[in-house]
Structures are given as C-alpha cells and as structure tokens.
Amino acid sequence: MTAADISVLLVDDHAVVREGYRRLLELSPDVARQAKPLTPRRRTSAFARCDPTL
C-alpha cells in the first residue's frame, strides 16, 4: 500500500474516543483521517464530501 490508500471519516460523540482513534490512525502511514465532524448534519455532509473508505 502507498501513502493514504485508506481514508477514514472519524466520527464519535465522545472526544476521548475520537482522540484515541486519531492517535492510533496517525501511526499508520497508509491511513488518512478525513474529518471529525461533531453534529449529525456535519457528519452526513462530510461523508458525502469525503467519500471515505471506512
């Protein structure tokens, strides 16, 4: 895999969980974190805009 083959839309309503996953994802060079939207409306629009792998 090359850099950022996998894109992840990181969404959770708990900041501690989001931060933990963010830190784990940063360790993997083939994963690009797309966004961390907080409101349901932002989550939906970010998903449509980013077209994440996960």
List the secondary-structure elements in sequence, H or E: EHEH
Radius of gyration: 11 Å
Count of discrete alpha- or pi-helical segments spanning 4 or more residues: 2
What's the total count of β strands? Answer: 2
* Helix percentage range: 40-55%
Given as residue ranges, the uncertain stretches (5+ residues, pLDDT < 50) are none
What would you note in describing this structure?
43% of the residues lie in helices and 17% in strands. With 54 residues, it is α+β, with helices and mostly antiparallel strands. The chain has one domain (6-50). Helix 1 links the parallel strand 1 and strand 2.
Keywords:
about 55 residues; 2 strands; single chain; alpha+beta; 2 helices
Brief description of this entry?
It is built from two helices and two strands, in the order βαβα. It is α+β, with helices and mostly antiparallel strands and 54 residues long.
